Amino acid sequence: MSVPATVSAASAQARWPRLRRPDPVALMALPAFAYLAASYGWPLIALLGHSLSGPDGISLAPFAQFLSDPYSWRVIGNTVRSALFVTLVCLLAGYPAAIALARARGAVQALLLLSVILPLSVGVVVKAYAWQIVLRRDGVVSQSLVGLGIWDAPQRLLFTETGLVIGAANVFLPFMILPIYSVIRLIDPRLSEAAATLGASPARRFLTVTLPLTLPGIVSGIAFVFSLAVSMYVVPSLVIGDRYQTLATLTGRAFLFMRDERLGSTTAVILLAFAVAVVVGSTALARRLGGGGRS
């Protein structure tokens, strides 16, 4: 008994499923993907390979040697601590600003949005040099604190960790405001009004309605700022100098001055691991908070 041709073709197609045709819209991303792979992905792979290379082939000896030095842990501590302080300052200052930006209307909102976006057009080097002037002993910050009675005499904030946090927070603040603002503007204001009609106080409305709904934006903002702050190079170099080493400044110093490519590659890979862990973890957390994990 012969098998019909249609049945034979159907069974062959089931056995060898036809390849799915690529989406033409997705093909538009190929030039950008190729550029990133060539200018970013391949150098990172080469950097990782260089950090793992040894006299006898692949080796973890450079990482073991770096992590066995107490000075290296001091550098890692400086990096993480300064990034955490910068992120905290940006969160405390950026969250109220994001709420005000989302609640404003018309020309006021446009002016506030412009004041957040416009500083991004100013180079980091220019901002760092400006903070050198502001944070010195006779600068605006010191004179203001003396005028308010907080300090008895002018003090220098330049070349201190406090000055580094202030200067870096100024640079990275927009990256905290914009993600939170984009989430707040999508929240229905009637939810807070409904909670008010049920007798909830303003503090309770914020803690039970506004704050939980804005958590995805908070997580995204923290990820943006922390990943940028943990790898900042220009601001520490100009505001605090060589006396306060971070992983980024040590990487630059190893490549530019010490000519130690193995040390520079090792610190760069450790720095990259910090940034990737923060981005991947925050993405998963933001997706879970935003309901992306539900089917």
Automatic annotation (TrEMBL):
Alphabetized PROSITE patterns for the sequence: ABC_TM1
Keyword Repressor recorded: no
Any Pfam family hit: BPD_transp_1
Record keywords: Cell membrane, Membrane, Plasmid, Transmembrane, Transmembrane helix, Transport
Protein's UniProt keywords contain Cell membrane: yes
Gene3D superfamilies: MetI-like
Name of the protein described by the UniProt record: ABC transporter permease
Species annotation: Methylobacterium aquaticum
